[in-house]
Amino acid sequence: MLLAPPIIVMVAAVVLAYILIFVGEVAGLKALGIRTNGSALAFIIGFFLATFLCVILYIGIVFTGAANYLTGALAESWTRKQLSVLGAEWRIFSNVPFSVGFGEMSYEIDVDHIVVGPYGVLVLETKYSSSPIDLGGSQLEKRIGDAMVQVEDNSGRVRALLHQVDPNVPIRPIVIFWGRLVKSPDSFVRRVEGRGEDVRIVHGGDAKIWRPRLTEKEVLHSASVERLSTKIDDYLTYMNRRSST
């Protein structure tokens, strides 16, 4: 990504611009009769190097997709913090890997969070939006629809994993959006009909409102929660061993 042609061209353009600005500034100071002694020249060079490195860092973060990764990772940490308040009877698993496809065409995806508790198994997909998005809009925005598809696909993978333990375990797909410009649904929890279970769509900032609803109904006893959690623990151990070989 860092060596992609557009980024190389952009960096080269920045380098050339900085050289031209530096040469022009030194020439301008001389034309004004201002002497650029060693200290002044060192200050100018240091200033240009510092700003140049900042610009290159900005290009690297923005144009390689690192910014999206960092904001996404931060949003996932916010989600985990809100879920951790649920209590000891809930088990939280983060960044659970699943293999998709076969052979050379296979790749790995991560499920942001799987949460097992009295209300069932929650499969959560976390999204961050820096642009306006209305979670309760009459027209389902593409970003919301894409997130729904992703969380439903992940719910299917989790269901397949837990099928041997409990084929009828309730799997609740949830999409959590974070962002200052994200507008909450009127009811704070929007339910959209999915392939099987309804998909819940919520704003992360409304956790104090939607989080208590996860404790209103108990459908799994503690023994079931333990068996399902053990299955996920064993799966993660297997995946970790496989990735280390």
Describe this structure in words.
- This protein is of the alpha/beta class.
- The protein is 49% helix and 20% strand.
- It is built from six helices and eight strands; from the N terminus they run H-H-H-E-E-E-E-H-E-E-E-E-H-H.
- Helix 1 (5-31) runs antiparallel to helix 2 (38-63).
- The chain starts with a helix and ends with a helix.
- 19% of the residues are buried.
Quick structural gist:
This protein is α/β, with parallel strands linked by helices. It folds into 2 domains: 5-64; 67-244, Trna Endonuclease, Chain: A, domain 1 (3-Layer(aba) Sandwich), CATH 3.40.1350.
Main attributes?
245 residues; alpha/beta; Trna Endonuclease, Chain: A, domain 1; 6-stranded mixed sheet; 6 helices; 8 strands; 49% helix
Strand order, largest beta sheet: 1-2-3-5-8-7
Low-confidence stretches: none
What is the helix fraction of residues, given as a range? 40-55%
How far apart the termini lie comes to 27 Å
Count of individual helical segments: 6
Summed up, the domain count is 2
**Mean pLDDT across all amino acids:** 81
The CATH C-level name of the largest domain is Alpha Beta
- Alpha-carbon Rg, integer: 25 Å
Question: What is the overall silhouette?
Answer: globular
Main pleated sheet? 6 strands, mixed
- CATH fold label of the largest domain: Trna Endonuclease, Chain: A, domain 1
Residues in β-strands, percent = 15-25%
How many strands appear in the DSSP assignment? 8
Give the SSE map.
Layout: H1 5-31, H2 38-63, H3 66-83, E1 91-100, E2 107-117, E3 120-128, E4 133-134, H4 142-162, E5 171-178, E6 182-183, E7 190-192, E8 199-203, H5 207-210, H6 222-244
